[in-house]
Amino acid sequence: MAKDPRGRKARETRRGRFPAAAVAAGLLLVLAGCQDEDRPGAAAAEDGRPVVVAPGKPGEKARTLTPEQAAGEKPDDTPNAADHAYVQGMIEHHRQALTMSALAPQRASADGVKRLAERIAAAQQPEIGAMERWLARHPAPQAGSGGHGHGHGAMPGMATEQQLRELTGATGADFDRLFLKLMTAHHEGALKMAGQALAGGNNVAVEEMATEVVATQTAEVHRMRAMG
Question: pTM for the complete prediction?
Fold first, then answer.
Protein backbone atom coordinates (compact mmCIF):
# COMPACT_ATOMS: atom_id res chain seq x y z
CA MET A 1 0.00 0.00 0.00
CA ALA A 2 1.38 3.40 -0.95
CA LYS A 3 2.26 5.72 1.90
CA ASP A 4 0.15 8.85 2.24
CA PRO A 5 2.52 11.84 1.71
CA ARG A 6 0.03 14.10 3.43
CA GLY A 7 0.09 11.93 6.59
CA ARG A 8 3.88 11.93 6.60
CA LYS A 9 3.95 15.70 6.21
CA ALA A 10 1.48 16.12 9.07
CA ARG A 11 3.61 13.97 11.35
CA GLU A 12 6.73 15.94 10.46
CA THR A 13 4.89 19.17 11.15
CA ARG A 14 3.80 17.93 14.57
CA ARG A 15 7.32 16.86 15.43
CA GLY A 16 8.73 20.22 14.44
CA ARG A 17 6.09 22.13 16.36
CA PHE A 18 6.94 20.66 19.77
CA PRO A 19 10.63 20.91 20.68
CA ALA A 20 12.09 18.51 23.22
CA ALA A 21 12.13 21.20 25.90
CA ALA A 22 8.38 21.69 25.68
CA VAL A 23 7.79 17.93 25.90
CA ALA A 24 9.97 17.66 29.00
CA ALA A 25 8.21 20.59 30.60
CA GLY A 26 4.85 19.02 29.93
CA LEU A 27 5.89 15.87 31.80
CA LEU A 28 6.83 17.79 34.93
CA LEU A 29 4.44 20.73 35.15
CA VAL A 30 0.93 21.63 34.12
CA LEU A 31 0.77 23.70 30.98
CA ALA A 32 -1.76 26.41 31.49
CA GLY A 33 -2.35 26.41 27.76
CA CYS A 34 -3.92 22.95 28.15
CA GLN A 35 -6.50 24.36 30.53
CA ASP A 36 -9.98 25.43 29.48
CA GLU A 37 -9.40 28.64 27.57
CA ASP A 38 -12.80 29.95 28.61
CA ARG A 39 -12.07 29.56 32.29
CA PRO A 40 -11.18 32.83 34.05
CA GLY A 41 -7.52 33.03 35.03
CA ALA A 42 -6.22 30.66 32.37
CA ALA A 43 -2.57 31.63 32.03
CA ALA A 44 -1.10 32.71 28.74
CA ALA A 45 1.60 35.12 27.64
CA GLU A 46 0.66 38.42 26.05
CA ASP A 47 1.41 37.00 22.62
CA GLY A 48 -1.02 34.13 23.24
CA ARG A 49 1.61 31.43 23.78
CA PRO A 50 1.00 29.00 26.66
CA VAL A 51 3.03 29.38 29.79
CA VAL A 52 3.98 26.98 32.58
CA VAL A 53 2.69 27.69 36.05
CA ALA A 54 5.50 26.63 38.41
CA PRO A 55 4.28 26.20 42.00
CA GLY A 56 6.34 28.14 44.50
CA LYS A 57 7.82 26.84 47.72
CA PRO A 58 5.67 27.06 50.86
CA GLY A 59 4.90 30.72 51.44
CA GLU A 60 6.03 31.75 47.95
CA LYS A 61 3.91 32.71 44.96
CA ALA A 62 3.73 30.59 41.83
CA ARG A 63 5.80 31.68 38.82
CA THR A 64 4.97 31.69 35.13
CA LEU A 65 7.60 30.40 32.73
CA THR A 66 7.81 29.56 29.08
CA PRO A 67 8.00 25.82 28.37
CA GLU A 68 11.65 26.24 27.40
CA GLN A 69 12.48 27.98 30.69
CA ALA A 70 10.68 25.32 32.70
CA ALA A 71 12.50 22.49 30.95
CA GLY A 72 15.85 24.15 31.61
CA GLU A 73 15.24 24.62 35.31
CA LYS A 74 16.77 21.95 37.51
CA PRO A 75 16.08 21.75 41.25
CA ASP A 76 19.06 22.26 43.50
CA ASP A 77 19.61 18.90 45.19
CA THR A 78 23.06 19.66 46.56
CA PRO A 79 23.67 17.23 49.46
CA ASN A 80 23.43 18.81 52.88
CA ALA A 81 24.56 17.69 56.33
CA ALA A 82 21.51 15.46 56.80
CA ASP A 83 22.24 13.63 53.55
CA HIS A 84 25.86 12.97 54.48
CA ALA A 85 24.96 11.96 58.04
CA TYR A 86 22.42 9.46 56.76
CA VAL A 87 24.65 7.83 54.16
CA GLN A 88 27.69 7.60 56.43
CA GLY A 89 25.66 6.26 59.32
CA MET A 90 23.59 3.83 57.28
CA ILE A 91 26.68 2.21 55.77
CA GLU A 92 27.85 1.30 59.27
CA HIS A 93 24.31 0.36 60.30
CA HIS A 94 23.93 -2.01 57.33
CA ARG A 95 27.33 -3.58 57.96
CA GLN A 96 26.27 -4.62 61.44
CA ALA A 97 23.10 -6.15 60.02
CA LEU A 98 25.25 -8.18 57.63
CA THR A 99 27.45 -9.32 60.53
CA MET A 100 24.41 -10.49 62.46
CA SER A 101 22.82 -12.15 59.43
CA ALA A 102 26.01 -14.07 58.63
CA LEU A 103 25.61 -15.96 61.93
CA ALA A 104 22.22 -17.40 61.04
CA PRO A 105 23.11 -20.21 58.62
CA GLN A 106 25.15 -22.10 61.25
CA ARG A 107 23.35 -21.07 64.44
CA ALA A 108 19.65 -20.62 63.66
CA SER A 109 17.24 -23.53 63.98
CA ALA A 110 14.14 -22.07 62.30
CA ASP A 111 14.09 -22.05 58.52
CA GLY A 112 12.17 -18.77 58.63
CA VAL A 113 15.00 -17.08 60.52
CA LYS A 114 17.55 -18.41 58.03
CA ARG A 115 15.53 -17.16 55.07
CA LEU A 116 15.06 -13.78 56.73
CA ALA A 117 18.81 -13.44 57.26
CA GLU A 118 19.39 -14.32 53.60
CA ARG A 119 16.93 -11.63 52.47
CA ILE A 120 18.52 -9.02 54.71
CA ALA A 121 21.98 -9.78 53.32
CA ALA A 122 20.73 -9.82 49.73
CA ALA A 123 19.10 -6.40 50.14
CA GLN A 124 21.61 -4.55 52.27
CA GLN A 125 24.88 -5.58 50.62
CA PRO A 126 23.95 -3.84 47.33
CA GLU A 127 22.64 -0.86 49.27
CA ILE A 128 26.03 -0.46 50.94
CA GLY A 129 27.65 -0.42 47.50
CA ALA A 130 25.22 2.22 46.27
CA MET A 131 25.86 4.42 49.31
CA GLU A 132 29.63 4.05 49.00
CA ARG A 133 29.42 5.13 45.35
CA TRP A 134 27.31 8.09 46.39
CA LEU A 135 29.93 9.12 48.95
CA ALA A 136 32.64 8.85 46.30
CA ARG A 137 30.69 11.34 44.17
CA HIS A 138 29.80 13.55 47.14
CA PRO A 139 32.67 13.46 49.66
CA ALA A 140 31.63 14.39 53.17
CA PRO A 141 32.94 17.63 54.71
CA GLN A 142 35.91 17.49 57.03
CA ALA A 143 35.06 16.63 60.62
CA GLY A 144 36.00 20.13 61.76
CA SER A 145 33.74 21.83 59.22
CA GLY A 146 30.37 20.29 59.88
CA GLY A 147 31.13 16.62 59.22
CA HIS A 148 29.33 13.93 61.20
CA GLY A 149 30.97 11.00 62.91
CA HIS A 150 29.01 8.02 64.12
CA GLY A 151 29.45 5.64 67.00
CA HIS A 152 27.14 2.87 68.08
CA GLY A 153 25.55 5.16 70.65
CA ALA A 154 24.80 7.79 68.02
CA MET A 155 22.67 5.54 65.82
CA PRO A 156 19.38 4.04 66.95
CA GLY A 157 18.99 0.29 66.90
CA MET A 158 22.66 -0.66 66.86
CA ALA A 159 23.48 -3.74 68.92
CA THR A 160 26.12 -3.32 71.60
CA GLU A 161 29.33 -5.32 71.62
CA GLN A 162 27.94 -7.39 74.52
CA GLN A 163 24.77 -8.17 72.58
CA LEU A 164 26.80 -9.23 69.56
CA ARG A 165 28.87 -11.58 71.75
CA GLU A 166 25.68 -13.08 73.16
CA LEU A 167 24.28 -13.58 69.67
CA THR A 168 27.51 -15.18 68.48
CA GLY A 169 27.46 -17.61 71.39
CA ALA A 170 23.81 -18.58 71.00
CA THR A 171 22.49 -21.52 68.98
CA GLY A 172 19.17 -23.08 68.10
CA ALA A 173 15.99 -21.57 69.49
CA ASP A 174 17.99 -19.21 71.73
CA PHE A 175 19.70 -17.76 68.68
CA ASP A 176 16.39 -17.41 66.86
CA ARG A 177 14.79 -15.44 69.69
CA LEU A 178 17.80 -13.17 70.21
CA PHE A 179 18.32 -12.60 66.50
CA LEU A 180 14.69 -11.55 65.98
CA LYS A 181 14.83 -9.27 69.03
CA LEU A 182 18.06 -7.54 68.02
CA MET A 183 17.24 -7.33 64.32
CA THR A 184 13.79 -5.89 64.97
CA ALA A 185 15.35 -3.13 67.09
CA HIS A 186 18.02 -2.69 64.43
CA HIS A 187 15.44 -2.21 61.68
CA GLU A 188 13.39 0.17 63.79
CA GLY A 189 16.51 2.26 64.27
CA ALA A 190 17.12 2.30 60.52
CA LEU A 191 13.56 3.52 59.98
CA LYS A 192 14.22 6.44 62.35
CA MET A 193 17.39 7.32 60.46
CA ALA A 194 15.59 7.14 57.14
CA GLY A 195 12.82 9.36 58.47
CA GLN A 196 15.37 11.96 59.53
CA ALA A 197 16.95 11.91 56.07
CA LEU A 198 13.59 12.29 54.36
CA ALA A 199 12.67 15.19 56.64
CA GLY A 200 15.96 17.08 56.56
CA GLY A 201 17.87 15.97 53.47
CA ASN A 202 18.04 17.70 50.12
CA ASN A 203 19.50 15.17 47.68
CA VAL A 204 17.19 13.20 45.42
CA ALA A 205 19.38 10.07 45.38
CA VAL A 206 19.50 9.96 49.18
CA GLU A 207 15.75 10.42 49.31
CA GLU A 208 15.33 7.43 47.01
CA MET A 209 17.68 5.28 49.12
CA ALA A 210 15.91 6.25 52.34
CA THR A 211 12.51 5.55 50.79
CA GLU A 212 13.68 2.07 49.78
CA VAL A 213 14.88 1.39 53.33
CA VAL A 214 11.51 2.45 54.71
CA ALA A 215 9.66 0.13 52.32
CA THR A 216 11.79 -2.99 52.78
CA GLN A 217 12.53 -2.75 56.47
CA THR A 218 8.97 -1.86 57.49
CA ALA A 219 7.83 -5.10 55.84
CA GLU A 220 10.60 -7.06 57.55
CA VAL A 221 9.74 -5.59 60.96
CA HIS A 222 6.17 -6.82 60.57
CA ARG A 223 7.45 -10.24 59.51
CA MET A 224 9.84 -10.53 62.46
CA ARG A 225 7.16 -9.52 64.97
CA ALA A 226 4.92 -12.22 63.58
CA MET A 227 7.72 -14.77 63.83
CA GLY A 228 8.57 -13.80 67.39
Answer: 0.67
